[in-house]
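Could someone model magnesium ion with this protein?
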Amino acid sequence: MTLSALRVAIIVFPGSNCDRDMMVAIEQLTSRRPALVWHKEASLDAADLVIIPGGFSFGDYLRCGALAGRSPIMNAVLDHAARGGAVMGICNGFQILTETGMVPGVLIRNAGLKFSCRNVGLRPCETLASPFTAGLDLGEDLTIPIAHNEGNYFADADELDRIEGNGQVAFRYAASDAGGPVNPNGASRDIAGVLSSNGRVLGMMPHPERAMSKLHGGTDGAKFLLKSLEALVS
Amino acid sequence: MQAIVNISLKEGVLDPQGRAISHSLNDLGFSEVGDVRVGKQILLEIDETDPARLRQRVARMCETLLSNTVIEDYSIDIPDEQ
Amino acid sequence: MQAIVNISLKEGVLDPQGRAISHSLNDLGFSEVGDVRVGKQILLEIDETDPARLRQRVARMCETLLSNTVIEDYSIDIPDEQ
Amino acid sequence: MTSASDVMTFENAATMGLSRDEWDLINQRLGRTPNLCELGIFSAMWSEHCSYKSSKKWLKTLPIDGPQVIEGPGENAGAVDIGDGLAAIFKIESHNHPSFIEPYQGAATGVGGILRDVFTMGARPVALLNALRFGAAEHEKTRHLVGGVVLGIGGYGNCIGIPTVGGEVNFDKSYNGNILVNAMAVGLANSDRIFRSAATGPGNPVIYVGAKTGRDGIHGATMASAEFSDETESKRPTVQVGDPFTGKLLMEACLELMASDSVLSIQDMGAAGLTSSSVEMASKGGLGMEIDLDLVPAREENMSAYELMLSESQERMLMVLKPDATETARAIFNKWDLDFMPIGRVTETGRLILLKDGGTACDIPIGPLVDDAPEYDRPHGDAPTRKQLASSDITNDAPITNMLKTMLGHVDLASRRWIYEQYDSQVMADTIAGPGGDAALVRVHGSKRGLAMSTDCTPRYVEADPKMGGAQAVAEAYRNLSAIGATPLAITNNLNFGNPEKPEIMTQLVESVLGMGDAARQLDTPVVSGNVSLYNETDGKAIQPCPVIGMVGVIENVDDAVGNCFVAADQDIFVIGQSDKADDGWLGASIYQQHHGDDGIYAPPPLDLVAEQKTGSFVRQQILGGGINAAHDIADGGLAVAIAEMAMRSGFGAEIAVPKTGNLHGWAFGEDQARFVVTTADSQALIAAAKEAGIDITKLGMVSDQGELKFGDNDTISIADLNAVFEGCIPALMAG
Ligand SMILES: Nc1ncnc2c1ncn2[C@@H]1O[C@H](COP(=O)(O)OP(=O)(O)O)[C@@H](O)[C@H]1O
Ligand SMILES: [Mg+2]
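Reply:
Sure, complex below.
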């Protein structure tokens, strides 16, 4: 399969605001425009990758991702994942994935109690087999922006030990040229991204779709997305 | 001693969060749900043994920090008072 | 009928907001304040006349949406029950 | 009318801020005494906020025309042609009083309001900026206000998904009791698909969309037109609460509907809510409007006609639709879960008729509401002349770097990172240069073209010399855009002043508007929109005058833009706009003067608009031609601060030669205008080009990779030391 044959679906909730950005990023890499799927749809056309984009679905009301997590489309996304389909949740998408239990843990308020928009270093970790991490070099940190208020990854110590033991930690925060504290939000064990137990679902706080070109100030987002997409077609 | 402060939006102040929750509950099949309002509940552990003085101090805390009196009302509950 | 849902963080779950409030209160001269935890209080107007059934329905709402049972506990208060 | 007890008296009118003359005029125009609802409508429409009664005469002197102007002042926002069949649509607006009372909601609704102004015109908003003024850093309320305002701006902008790409913030004790919160929004539309507000076609349906109406912010426009006192603060009118989530839905729904060819005219409900929107739409169309208030979606029960008309609930719009488009429109709004309600129709009567509970709650001719709105020529005089400050009267022999460190570690100049990292500056993925540069740069989606923008004002100059200060704000914005290589196109402005009934305040307003006009004419940046906020006083004391400029410009190819960081070691550093004879500088009204604890008011640096245009154009051309690879305009803190900023932002150091004679601090910290610090990879070519253009250019030194800033032979400081104080200041202030 070629990259342009890859069927990518991006779920759109009321309040999503990185849906277009992600669509543009994927199209830049695959030359094929992803489908945008409205949250009220009850079913999902066959897709090789479902992306839950960033933003403020339902205004972040109640808890980030809580109301979106109960939207009609999420049943279809759960089915897709249950069949072994690949799912990627970015930022608010990660929050939605934790709310539906598709990846372990929860995301709580940043330790600094402030929204934070800046570049962070991102260290790929050794994981179980996953299309999202298979192509990454372990020694090579990425620089990708974050922009969130609730990205503080939390799980109890046993759970953390378990997911670390299983190779479910995809990324940890690392130092970057941009300066600032390494861990931008107080996340347990510096965790920035986690995988489901079968490695097919990834949730991560940083926004790769905002690091797609020199004009963005960096291309590491493109690098990461491309590796993931290539792993999915191979 | 413990004090519980409940903070709610003043009447008439828009509660967009409550509205969104109410909609979602309706959509999830809880059609009986009408108005929803969301407030905060703050639990404080305080080194104080006199319930009356405790209430007084907590009221001061509400006025100075805990509640935004422009748009919020607060009420104080001291479980040990009973 | 009204239902009140109180949602609090489970013990052991970090509460950065509560910690910040506790510090601020200390700084403001309320040195007697120790641990602070922040929870939510949700008030629901519900079209239901039977308190028992109301409680049951609200529990369902909590489990499906209102609370994230991984990190939160909830309690339900039905004022009309008494 | 509704009831006898509802007949108003002058006392009622006075509590709504109307004068005796204005009251008499209302009675005369109506031929009877108004009822409460009618009086409320008059008072809102005739408030300073809606009628511009003190400033109108002077606003008319501003240049508003140019080949680039598509829509000048008068609509919800201004529009300029940026090429490719596209228009940039932008405006700035103040939310000063609400933000002082409730900083979070005040700032948030300020952002929401200005965004509605922009998308009402059919533009998708692509960028937000702001201009903030707070009281002294050490004032007891400052921390709370800064924290709340920043949270509110981020709270709305981040959630609705429009990047906040720039702004400015100053601290001064004159704002202790009256902060300024000005928000600017910039959007993009096809030039031939711009929507306007004039109602058309008698009989056409008038539709209410968006959120429901509650009792919030009732009579906010009148409040915004009154002075502050401790009493107002305790009265605490119900503040408006922003709902960025509904704002986002409303924006998407409106833009979707506008693409469907259904909308004839549209107007957001901002200040004075349903009153100003209905009156303005009808008045601009030369028509009337009839509205059935019982149909207005209300959030609370038993709302009176007065409350419904004067509520400032957020996220609402009024539209006139093509008669057969109602169902298309309804479907779109239903999809977005928003209220959609036909509440009336356009009429030929020229009257505003409001029905309620089976009766007529209001019946007034629209003409007087708008045309008879008072216009005052308030007394004013000459601005005081100021003494010049000689450098030798204030400077000392301390090393430049000592002074630099003190200045960069003070709130006046310290890094704003603590603020702007709380804003999502990147959402929409077209931000090329966000906060931290001279002007922000946002790519036109799907193209190489870029929109550049900046907000600027230096209140201490305006206070010292309002005419120079009004012009300088335009010149500084012009410089900021030029420094990245963008061509300035037009401006919006926000006039923040004290009580215009005081001649000395009126003088500030008049003079700075005249100065602004001069600069806008000379720099070819007409005024396309703006906002006036008067009565910024607390207990009789006025703020430092603050006429903020928001400028928008364009760059053909974003690849050509440069930043204000050094790019490579060993490159030459030049100052453009300064001769190599310069060995002193202008310290009157400078930050340096402030930091020496001299609070006298001295003459600010002279401004030469022709020089501004010449140097600005030269820098732009050189950037676009590749002759300059980094540029930074010289503003607050002078030359030394500009160089230090370029070093800190890049991590490179610099070795700077200092003059052998003269006044070193004057040279380093003087705030002479029309200057840029630049670097180049080809010094000979740059010098030759400057000579040919007749522009002063002086080599200052070289970029180094030593991590140090060196002035002359033995005055050195490490960039890390500078960074520590520069970045540490505001976090320390906010941590308390
Ligand atoms: N309130 C604010 N909001 C967003 N950005 C800000 C704010 N204040 C300052 N900035 C950003 O910080 C940078 C430095 O600000 P400032 O010192 O005012 O710049 P200048 O002197 O070039 O006008 C600019 O890029 C500006 O956009
Ligand atoms: Mg600048």
